[in-house]
């Protein structure tokens, strides 16, 4: 690896200095925060709700658990986990982006979910929590925006209790060539136009489409889980591999 490559990373299809990526991603999410829920429904035709429900069903979260929802955004997973852990449990919604965190907090408070939820602005690569603290950690559609993904997985491993588990729901690689071509056409031709019409922001949605293509494929991400120390790692393709749910355990 040459010296230049060591200090750069991808921001969508562009190469940028590693120190710049976090602020560039922050600008994207500052821009999309207000329309995030509406755009998610439009972009996925509502299917993102089924992907998230499947993640919750696979999480094994139960009463009394401590759950960390990283890149929790507007709080879809946190809302459900709050009910599952009950008054004896605790859910922490963490997001590096303050705009997203505020949208999530306001949304959940408007729904009366206040008693067992904490909100923390946090970088997934350096989580500000004690060792061996959480029973379950989830990350839905956030890992691809992290600069050093392996650092994030290492940090998550540290804060999980022995016996705890990580679930990462993320866009992945379609399993068929035909689906991949259709998905590319949708992502690069329709999605930015939709972003322009609904959120007046084609550029952010162009980045989001590009970031999906730059994310590690299913087997590569599984290997990164294992490198962080997770065991019994597996993944399940959803919607033909457009999305995959990865799971790993800390023993």
Automatic annotation (TrEMBL):
Family designation: Belongs to the class I-like SAM-binding methyltransferase superfamily. MenG/UbiE family.
PROSITE patterns: SAM_MT_UBIE, UBIE_1, UBIE_2
UniProt xrefs under PANTHER family: 2-METHOXY-6-POLYPRENYL-1,4-BENZOQUINOL METHYLASE, MITOCHONDRIAL (PTHR43591:SF24), METHYLTRANSFERASE (PTHR43591)
Protein name listed in UniProt: Ubiquinone/menaquinone biosynthesis C-methyltransferase UbiE
The keyword Ribosomal protein appears for this protein: no
Catalytic activity: a 2-demethylmenaquinol + S-adenosyl-L-methionine = a menaquinol + S-adenosyl-L-homocysteine + H(+); a 2-methoxy-6-(all-trans-polyprenyl)benzene-1,4-diol + S-adenosyl-L-methionine = a 5-methoxy-2-methyl-3-(all-trans-polyprenyl)benzene-1,4-diol + S-adenosyl-L-homocysteine + H(+)
EC number: 2.1.1.163, 2.1.1.201
């Amino acid at each position: 690896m040459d010296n230049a490559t060591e200090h750069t990373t991808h921001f969508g299809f562009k190469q940028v200095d590693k120190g710049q990526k976090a602020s560039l991603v922050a600008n994207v999410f500052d821009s999309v925060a207000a329309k995030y829920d509406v755009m998610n429904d439009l972009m996925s035709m509502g299917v993102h709700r089924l992907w998230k429900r499947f993640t919750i069903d696979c999480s094994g979260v139960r009463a009394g658990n401590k759950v960390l929802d990283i890149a929790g955004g507007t709080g879809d997973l946190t809302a459900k986990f709050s009910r599952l852990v009950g008054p004896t449990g605790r859910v922490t919604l963490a997001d590096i982006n303050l705009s997203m965190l505020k949208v999530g907090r306001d949304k959940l408070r408007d729904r009366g979910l206040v008693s067992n939820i904490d909100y923390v602005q946090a970088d997934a690569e350096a989580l500000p929590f004690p060792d061996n603290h959480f029973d379950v950690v989830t990350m839905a559609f956030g890992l691809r925006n992290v600069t050093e993904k392996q650092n994030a997985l290492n940090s998550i491993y540290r804060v999980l209790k022995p016996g705890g588990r990580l679930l990462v729901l993320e866009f992945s690689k379609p399993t068929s060539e035909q689906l991949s071509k259709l998905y590319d056409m949708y992502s690069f031709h329709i999605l930015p136009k939709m972003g322009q019409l609904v959120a007046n922001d084609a550029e952010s949605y162009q980045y989001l489409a590009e970031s999906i293509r730059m994310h590690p494929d299913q087997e590569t991400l599984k290997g990164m889980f294992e490198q962080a120390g997770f065991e019994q790692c597996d993944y399940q393709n959803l919607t033909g591999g457009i999305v995959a749910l990865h799971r790993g355990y800390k023993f």
